[in-house]
C-alpha cells in the first residue's frame, strides 16, 4: 500500500524546477525579515547592557521572558500564514484576514495573562529568575510593560504573516526591516530625551508598531484583501489549536531543553558553561537559514494548485531538503575552519573561547544534518502538520536530554558537543524517513 502511494505521488508531483525557484525566492525574502528580527534582538541586549548596573538584571531576564512572548507571536504568525495561504489556494484571497480578529484576541489574552500572572505571583517568578530584591521593582515593571506593549505588536506581526501566506514575501520582509530600524531609532531617541532607561525598549518600539501596522494595512488594501468582520470564528479557533499551539509549544520546548543542557553542565564550572553557551548561540543564529528555507517551501506548496495535496507535500519536502543542504555545507565548513577567529571575536575570555572552539570541532561537521532537519520541521509546521512536527521534536529532545543526564562522570562541554553531533546525524536520518512516511501516508 505504501509502495503504491509513493509511486502515485511520484507520478503526480509538480515540476521540481519551478517549485525550487518559487521556494528559493520566498526563502530569500523571508531570510531578510528574520535577519532583521535578529538584529533587533541583538541590539536590544547590547542596549540594555550599556545602561549601567541597574539594567543588568533586566538584561538577564530579557531572553527567558522574550521566549514566552516569542512563543505566543510565532504560534499566531504560523497559523495566520497557513490560513491565508489556504484561502489564496482556494480562490479566497480577499478573505485572507478572516481569522485574524480571533487570532489577535487569543494572542492579546495570553499576553495580558502573562502580565497578570507576573504581577500576582511576582515573588516566586522573580525568585525563579534569580533577581535580587533591590532590583525586583524595576524588573517587574519591565516585564509587565513588555507584555502589554507586545499586544499592540501583534498587529504588524499578523499582517505580515498574511502577506507571506499570500505569497507577498518581499513586502513582508521590507516591512520587517522597517520595523527594526524604527524600533531602534525610537528607543534611542526616547532614552536620550527622557532618560527612561530600560522602559525605553518596550515603549520606544510603539511608534514603529503604529507606523508599520498602518503600512501593512495599506499594502493589504492594495492587494485587494477585504477587512475582516470583528467577530469570533470557530474555524480560526481550530486553526490555532492545530497550527499555532504546537509551534508555541516547540519554542517553549527549546527553552526548556537549553536549561536542561546547562543543568547537566553546572558542575563543570562557569568556563565550560560560557563556552558551550557561546557555541549554542552561534548555532542558534544559523537557524534562520533553515527556517527561511522551510517556510519558503511551505508557502510555495500551499499556493500550488492541485488536488493531490499528498504529492505536492512530498515534493515540497524534497525541495526543502534540497535547498537547505548547500548553505549548511558552506556554513559548517566555515565554522570548522574559522572556529578560532569566530570565538575570539565573540568573547575576550580566552578559556571560554577555547571551549567554544572545541564545541565547533564536533558540531560544525554535522551542521548540514542540523540544517536539513530544521528545514524539514519548519516545512511540516507550515503545511498544516505542526502537531506532527511538535511530537517529533518532543521525542528527539527527550532522548537527547536523557542521554545527556546518563553520560557517566563529570560532564564537560566537549561531551555535550559529541552528543549533539551524534544527535544531529541520527536525528536527521530518523526525521527524514519519519516525515516522508507521514506525508505520503496522509
TrEMBL record:
CDD domains noted in UniProt: MATE_like (cd12082)
Q: Name one Pfam family in it.
A: MatE
Where are the membrane-spanning stretches? 26-45, 65-88, 100-126, 138-160, 172-193, 199-220, 240-262, 282-303, 315-339, 359-380, 387-407, 419-439
Q: Where in the cell is it found?
A: Cell membrane
Stated membrane topology is: Multi-pass membrane protein
Q: Which UniProt keywords apply?
A: Cell membrane, Membrane, Transmembrane, Transmembrane helix, Transport
Where is it predominantly found?
membrane
Tell me what this protein is called.
MATE family efflux transporter
**Organism this protein belongs to:** Kitasatospora phosalacinea
